[in-house]
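Field log, afternoon session.

UNIT: design team B
ACTIVITY: writing a sequence onto a fixed backbone
BACKBONE:
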C-alpha cells in the first residue's frame, strides 16, 4: 500500500524510520501472535516483559552501557527530569548549571526551587548562538553535580567537548541528540532524553544513571513524591506502575533498526553527511543565514533566517505548499528550523535545499 508521506522537519514529535512504522503497522492488531495490540496488553504479561527486556538490552548494546548503570523508562518526558534531577541528586543542596539555550534555562529555573543553583557559564550574551568555553569553570567545591543540555533543540547548538567538571558528576539532557552518534556513557553520571525527539512517540523519557547515584527513597526529603524517586523505577525495572507500554515498544523497534544498519557509528556518518548538505547551502546563500556559530552547530537541529520576519513567514508558507512541514522556528526565537533527525532521509534534506535554492533565485532576481 502506498502512502502520501511528506518530509517532516518537526523538532518533536518527530519523524520515525519508515521501516519501523511498517513493522508496527503489520503487528498492530495482533502482536507476534498474541491476539492483541501492544496498546492493549498487560504490562505484567510475559509478552510485554519480553518487549521491555529486549528494548533495554538493545539500548545497552547500541551505547555500550556499562553494567553499573541503570536504564529506566519513565513517564513524563524530559521536562519532568528538570525537577527529578535536583530532588534526587542534591545531597549538599548545591548544583552548578551551564545555560546554553531554552531547555537548559528552564532546567536551571526549575532546579532553583530545590537548592542553591549556581550559573557557572552561559551563552545568553550572544542569544545562545555558541557554547561557552567550559575548560576551566568556577565549579563549586560542594556541588552535587554539573548540568548541561548537550544539544539545544531550539537554538541549534551542541557541545563539541564536554565541560571539565573537575571531578563532579556530569548530568546531560541529550533529548534531541540521543542515539545520533556514539557516546561514552562512563563520562556521565546521568544521561536522559525525551524520546519524542529522535527515538519514539512522546510521553516518556529514558534515564541512564550510574547505580551509586540512585539514593534510597528513605534518604530523600519526605516531600519528594514516591514516583519521583529514581529508586522507585530502578528497583521495579521501570514497572512500578503501568508504564508507557506503547512508547517502550516503539523505542525498542527503533533500537533494533539502528542495530540493523550498523549502529551509532554508521548513524553518525549519515547524520554528518546530511547536515553538511544543508549547512553548505546556508554558508553560500545570499538570502538564508544560519544562526549558530559554525564550530557549535548541531547535526540535528538547524535554525536559519531570512532578512525579515515577514519573509521567514513567507518561506514557511511556501514550504508547506511544496510538501514540506514543520519548518517554522520555535515561537521563542522565530525564523526557520529544520530538524534532521536520524530518520530523516538524505533525499529529504536534498529536496529542501533544492526548494530553498529555487525560492532564493525567484526572490533575489
Amino acid at each position: 500500500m502506498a502512502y502520501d508521506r511528506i518530509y517532516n522537519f518537526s523538532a518533536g514529535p518527530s519523524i520515525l524510520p519508515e521501516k519501523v512504522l511498517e513493522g508496527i503497522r503489520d503487528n498492530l492488531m495482533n502482536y507476534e501472535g498474541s491476539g492483541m495490540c501492544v496498546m492493549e496488553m498487560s504490562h505484567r504479561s510475559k509478552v510485554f516483559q519480553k518487549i521491555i527486556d529486549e528494548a533495554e538490552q538493545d539500548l545497552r548494546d547500541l551505547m555500550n552501557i556499562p553494567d553499573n548503570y541503570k536504564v529506566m523508562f519513565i513517564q513524563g518526558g524530559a521536562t519532568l527530569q528538570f525537577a527529578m534531577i535536583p530532588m534526587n541528586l542534591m545531597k549538599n543542596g548545591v548544583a552548578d548549571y551551564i545555560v546554553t539555550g531554552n531547555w537548559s534555562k528552564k532546567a536551571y529555573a526549575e532546579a532553583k526551587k530545590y537548592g542553591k543553583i549556581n550559573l557557572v557559564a552561559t551563552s545568553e550574551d550572544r542569544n545562545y548562538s555558541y557554547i561557552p568555553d567550559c575548560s576551566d569553570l568556577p565549579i563549586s567545591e560542594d556541588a552535587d553535580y554539573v548540568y548541561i543540555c548537550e544539544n539545544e533543540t531550539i537554538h541549534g547548538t551542541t557541545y563539541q567537548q564536554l565541560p571539565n567538571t573537575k571531578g563532579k558528576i556530569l548530568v546531560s539532557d541529550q533529548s534531541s541528540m540521543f542515539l545520533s552518534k556514539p557516546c561514552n556513557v562512563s563520562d556521565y553520571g546521568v544521561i536522559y532524553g525525551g524520546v519524542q525527539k529522535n527515538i519514539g512517540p512522546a510521553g516518556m523519557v529514558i534515564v541512564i544513571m550510574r547505580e551509586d547515584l540512585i539514593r534510597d527513597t528513605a534518604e530523600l526529603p519526605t516531600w519528594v513524591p514516591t514516583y519521583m524517586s529514581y529508586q522507585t523505577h530502578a528497583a521495579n525495572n521501570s514497572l512500578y506502575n503501568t508504564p508507557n507500554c506503547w512508547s517502550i515498544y516503539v523505542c525498542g523497534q527503533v533500537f533494533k533498526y539502528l542495530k540493523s544498519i550498523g549502529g551509532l557509528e554508521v548513524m553518525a556518518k549519515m547524520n554528518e553527511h546530511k547536515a553538511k548538505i544543508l549547512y553548505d547551502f546556508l554558508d553560500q546563500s545570499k538570502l538564508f543565514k544560519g544562526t549558530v556559530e559554525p564550530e557549535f552547530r548541531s547535526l540535528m537541529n538547524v535554525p536559519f533566517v531570512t532578512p525579515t520576519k515577514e519573509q521567514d513567514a513567507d518561506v514557511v508558507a511556501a514550504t508547506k505548499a511544496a510538501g514540506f512541514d514543520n519548518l517554522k522556528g520555535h515561537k521563542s526565537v522565530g525564523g526557520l528550523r529544520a530538524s534532521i533527525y536520524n530518520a530523516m532521509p538524505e533525499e529529504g534534506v536534498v529536496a529542501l535545499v533544492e526548494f530553498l535554492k529555487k525560492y532564493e533565485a525567484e526572490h533575489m532576481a
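LOG NOTE: The chain has two domains: 7-17+263-363, 22-260.
NEXT ACTIVITY: expression trials, pending approval
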